[in-house]
Specification:
The protein has helices at about 35-45, 65-70, 75-85, 110-130, 155-165, 185-190, 240-255, 280-300, 320-330, 340-350, 380-390; strands spanning about 15, 55-60, 135, 175, 195-205, 225-230, 260-265, 305. Strands 2-1-3-8-7-4-5-6 form an 8-stranded parallel beta sheet, sandwiched between helices. The protein is α/β, with parallel strands linked by helices.
Amino acid sequence: MTSRPGLRPSALPTTVAWSPAMTAYDFGPGHPMAPQRLELTARLAGSLGLFELPHVSLRVPEVASDVELQRVHSADYIAAVRRASEDPTASDPERGLGTDDDPAFAGMHEASARLAAASLLCAEKVLSGEAVRAVNFGGGLHHASRERASGFCIYNDAALAIQRLLDGGVAKIAYIDVDAHHGDGTQSIFWDDPRVLTMSLHESGLTLFPGTGFANEIGGPHALGTAVNVALPAHTGDAGWLRAFHAVVPQLVGAFEPEVIVSQHGCDSHANDPLTNLNLSVDGQREAATAVAGLAARYCGNRWIATGGGGYDITGVVPRTWSHLIGIVAQNPIPLTTRVPEDWLEYVREEFGRNAPERMGDEADIWWRSWEVGYDPGDAVDRSIIATRKEIFPLHGLDPWFD
C-alpha cells in the first residue's frame, strides 16, 4: 500500500500552478524538453495525494499578456516570438528562435506565455497573502534573456515572478538555482539590480552549456556581489554538491536578508540525466529542496516560490524529484522509502514501455562534510567553493575562510 502525506492542520496555504494545457510547450519529437515530464509529474503528485491536501490550491494559469511579459522581455523580442509562433519556418537565429535547441513550433508564443503566467500566478498569490508558498514545476526556464531564447527556454518565468514581486513592493529577493546548467538568463536580467541576489550552483561552463557561470561573475557596478556562481567540476556527486551549497548559500542568504526566495529546481544534476555530467541522486535533490525550505522559513517568513527547470530522464528521475519538491513546498514531504504508486508505475509501463523506480528515493548516502571541518586545496569541489567565497563573501561583510 502506498503511504500518503499526513494531514497537517497548521500547514501554510500553498498554491500549485498546473494545467494539462502547459504540455503544449513542445519542441517536437526527439527534443529533450519532452512535455511528458510535466504530465508524469502531475500524475505522480496526484497519486501521492499532494493535490488533495486541504491547504493546497491547484490553480490553472492563463496566457501571460504582452504587457506582463514586457516586465523582463523587450517588445521586439516578444514580437519575434509571435512571428515564429505563427510561421515556424521563419527562423530568427539572432534571437535564438528556430535553432536546434529552440525550434519554432505553431503556438509557441501561447505555450511559452502560459508557463510564464504560471509563475506570475504564484507571485500574485504570495503578494496577496492567499498563499505563503507556491510551486510551478512547469517553469524554471532560466536561460531566456531579455532579448533572446536559449537552451530550451523562450520566456523566463522565474525572472517574471521576481520582477512582479519587486513591482508589488518586495524589497529584496534571493534567487537560488540548482539546475545542472548555469542560470545565465536570470542572472543577466538582474545583473545590475541590487535588490536581487542570484545564486547558481551548476556544472562548470568548461564542460557544459552555456559555458558561463564562473566565480568572477559577481554582478554589475551597482550590484556587486549579487551574482553568485559556484561552478562545480563534472562528476560532482551528492556529498560534494551539498557541501558546496551549505558552504555558500545559507551564509549569503543570511547576510542579504531577502523577503522572498524564488528557486529553480532543475533536476538534470542527476547521475542518470542524458545531457549533463553531475552525479546527484533523487535523495540529494530532495535534500537541496529541503535546505531551500529551511532558508525560507528562517529568513523570509516562509515566503517561497519554487519552479522546475531542466531534467531529461523523464520517467526515472523528473517525476519523483518534482513530486518531492511539491511535497516539501506544501510542508508534507514524501519519505524516500515511500513506494511509488502502482497505478503510476503501470501507466509508465503501458505508455513508455519502461519500468520506473519503485521507491521515491535512490537509497543514496547523502552525507557531506561541513565547511567548518576545513578546506582541502587538493579537492576540486573545495577549490570551486573557495573561489566563490573569496569573490563574494567580502562584499557582504563575510570572511571567506571562517564564516
